[in-house]
Design a protein that fits this description.
The protein has eleven helices and no strands. By secondary structure, it is mostly helical. The protein has two domains: about 200 residues, no CATH class; about 80 residues, no CATH class. Helix 1 packs parallel to helix 3 and helix 2 runs parallel beside helix 4. The radius of gyration is 24 Å and the shape is globular.
C-alpha cells in the first residue's frame, strides 16, 4: 500500500514536477543496493523471532513517521522560498530517510520468511511442497498488491489525499500487532524454527590460505589413504577448503573470519553461475510502468 501511495503523495505535494517522486525512488533503491549485503548478514546472524520482531516494528514505525511528514506537507503547503523552503526540504528528507529504512526492513522480513521460514516449514513435507508454498505466497503477495492499489485509489478519489494518508498511518499502527500475532503462531507451532541458525560467513582468499595453513595437519594427513569420495580435499578449490575445516569436536564448522563488506558481496554475486540470468531477469522490469504509482 505504501509503495503505491507514496508516489501519488509526492506528485500531489509538488504537482509541477516529478522530482520528489524520482528522488524517493532513488533513495529507496540506493538503500537496498548499499545495505542489502549487511542486511542479509544481520538476518543470518540473529535469531529468527528477533529478526521478525525488529523488522516488522521498524517497517511500520518508519512508514507511520513518513506518513506524518507527508500529512504536514499536504495540510500546510510550504512556500518554496525563505524559511518555508528549509522546512519543506527537511520534511522531504524525513520522508525519504524513513522510506529507505522501511524498504530495508521490508526486505529483511521478506528474506527471513521466504528464504528461511518457508524452507524449514516444507522440510518435513512431501516432495514439491516447497514449490507449492512459494507459489501460494507469490499469489498472495500479488493479490495484496492489487487490492492495496485499488483501496488507495478509491479513497483518494472518493474522499481526499489527506484522508488516504491518515488511513494509511492508522493502518500501519494497527496491523503490526495482527502481523506479529500470525507469525508468532507459526513460530510457536513449528519447533524447528526455534533451533539456532548455523553460523557462517564468506571469507577472503587470504583468510582461506591462513586457515588452510593452520589446519593442514587435519585436512591433509600423509598416513591416510587417498579419499574415495569426489571431490577429494586435494581437488577442492579455496572456498570449499574453508568449509572443510574441522572444529574441536570433529564436526564441520563455518568459520567467522570477517564481516563481508558491500563490495565483497557484489564480487561474490558476480562470480555466481546464475549472475547473467539474474541480470537478464531484472532487465525485464526496466520500464516506466514499473513504479506502482504510475500504473494508475
Amino acid at each position: 500500500m505504501w509503495e503505491f501511495a507514496v508516489g501519488l503523495f509526492m506528485i500531489e505535494i509538488w504537482k509541477k514536477s516529478l522530482l520528489l517522486t524520482s528522488l524517493y525512488g532513488l533513495v529507496e533503491t540506493a538503500a537496498i543496493v548499499l545495505f542489502g549485503v549487511r542486511l542479509g548478514e544481520w538476518v543470518d546472524r540473529f535469531p529468527r523471532l528477533r529478526v521478525i520482531q525488529a523488522s516488522l516494528a521498524l517497517q511500520n514505525l518508519c512508514v507511520f513517521s513518513a506518513t506524518l511528514a507527508i500529512l504536514l506537507l499536504l495540510i500546510r503547503p510550504y512556500h518554496k522560498d525563505g524559511r518555508g523552503l528549509i522546512v519543506f526540504i527537511c520534511l522531504v528528507a524525513v520522508v525519504n530517510i524513513f522510506g529507505g529504512i522501511s524498504a530495508l526492513a521490508s526486505l529483511a522480513t521478506k528474506i527471513s520468511l521466504e528464504r528461511d521460514w518457508v524452507i524449514i516449514l516444507a522440510a518435513d513435507q512431501p516432495s514439491g511442497q516447497l514449490t507449492k508454498m512459494n507459489s501460494t505466497m507469490r499469489r498472495l503477495d500479488l493479490a495484496c498488491t492489487l487490492l492495496a492499489a485499488v483501496f488507495v485509489g478509491f479513497i483518494m478519489s472518493a474522499m481526499s489525499v489527506v484522508a488516504s494518508a491518515i488511513g494509511m498511518a492508522t493502518w500501519n499502527i494497527t496491523c503490526v500487532g495482527i502481523e506479529y500475532w500470525l507469525l508468532l503462531s507459526v513460530y510457536n507451532g513449528t519447533p524447528r524454527l526455534h533451533e539456532e541458525k548455523a553460523s557462517y560467513h564468506l571469507v577472503s582468499e587470504m583468510d582461506i590460505q591462513k586457515l588452510v595453513a593452520q589446519n593442514s595437519d587435519v585436512l591433509f594427513k600423509e598416513d591416510k589413504a587417498p579419499c574415495k569420495q569426489s571431490p577429494c580435499p586435494n581437488n577442492l578449490n579455496s572456498f570449499q577448503l574453508s568449509l572443510a575445516l574441522l572444529n574441536n569436536h570433529g564436526t564441520f564448522l563455518w568459520h567467522k573470519v570477517r564481516t563481508l563488506s558491500v563490495f565483497d558481496g557484489w564480487k561474490v554475486y558476480l562470480r555466481q553461475e546464475s549472475m547473467l540470468a539474474g541480470i537478464a531477469f531484472s532487465l525485464l522490469s526496466v520500464s516506466v510502468l514499473r513504479c506502482y504509482f504510475l500504473k494508475s
